[in-house]
Amino acid sequence: MFALKSRIYYSLGFAKCCQSRNFSVGKATLDSVNLKGRSFLTLKDYNAEEIKHILWVSADLKHRIKHRGEHLPLLQGKSIAMIFEKRSTRTRMSTETGFSLLGGHPCFLTPQDIHLGVNECTTDTARVLSGLADIVLARVYNHSSLEHLDKDTSIPVINGLSDLYHPIQILADLLTLQEHYGSLKGRTLTWIGDGNNVLHSFMMSLAKLGVNLKVATPKGYEPDAAVTEEAQRLAKQFGTRLQFVSDPVEAARDSSVLVTDTWVSMGQEEEKKKRLKDFSGYQITIQTGSVAAPDWTFLHCLPRKPEEVDDEVFYSQRSLVFEEAENRKWTIMGLMVCILTDYRPQIPTLKL
């Protein structure tokens, strides 16, 4: 009942708020945000108001389309080129279905269709796509491929995942937590696991929203040094706490949200045996959560392996993983609408 009650409370409160004719559409700084034409390679490039604006649009689309059954062809006549060097269930499904739902045409491109910098130089590919599509989403191995593509296109580029960042996942996580808790400021999120691209994106965004971050990684699996330096600067600037430890239980203490990810990503299969040994003791269990805040919840961007989190947590009412997965759709829709249109939400601004 824990998560169910929270969702019912949120839905009732949200519906009541939307029925009011006298709600505020937020501060002028948020309402005046315009992201049209911007690329989205890393949350490092987006300030707090811009992140909030994307989440606001995402929540608005979810409310109007899912809950009110409205038809919103906001991307009618537009097309997106989806470049996938790495496979994905959630990124492909959320982008394809979301873009289509908004009236646009998604074009899915595998390495057999387009291989950046191999059959054709990235510069030429970028110029060709600029004349054929309105926006590009690329899921790549190397972040430099995205930067090169973005440099040579005249249309916006979205990072669908790279070795350095996974910013569209964080948008879904933030919306999920906002829906569950009602607000995020002052809460603490704990990352337990590998210092990877998802963690890097949390590090580039949480402080801007007033969220504290604790990180527990085994020795040798710490996040990128340059990302860490920037995250420390952001924590100081926004007055939040950023803590790095090696003990998962110590990291989980008093935290509102426990998060982990796969320990063996695509391209790391040869390291599996060593990684599983090195991450021994990092599995999230109910015992890990016993020292967390009373209302703690769990997130995982999927796909999940049992060694990362046990079934008792993963399938519990504290787990928000399937709401999180669905919100990949609403947040990528919100992001694309922000980048391609001048759309303004109808619902009240979110309390973040």
Automatic annotation (TrEMBL):
One Gene Ontology biological process: citrulline biosynthetic process
Domain Aspartate/ornithine carbamoyltransferase Asp/Orn-binding: 185-338
Location within or outside the cell: Mitochondrion matrix
UniProt keyword list: Amino-acid biosynthesis, Arginine biosynthesis, Mitochondrion, Transferase, Transit peptide, Urea cycle
Domain Aspartate/ornithine carbamoyltransferase carbamoyl-P binding stretches: 38-179
Source organism, top-level taxon: Eukaryota
EC number(s) stated in the UniProt entry for this protein: 2.1.3.3
Subunit structure, interactors included: Homotrimer.
Name the UniProt record assigns to this protein: ornithine carbamoyltransferase
Organism: Danio rerio
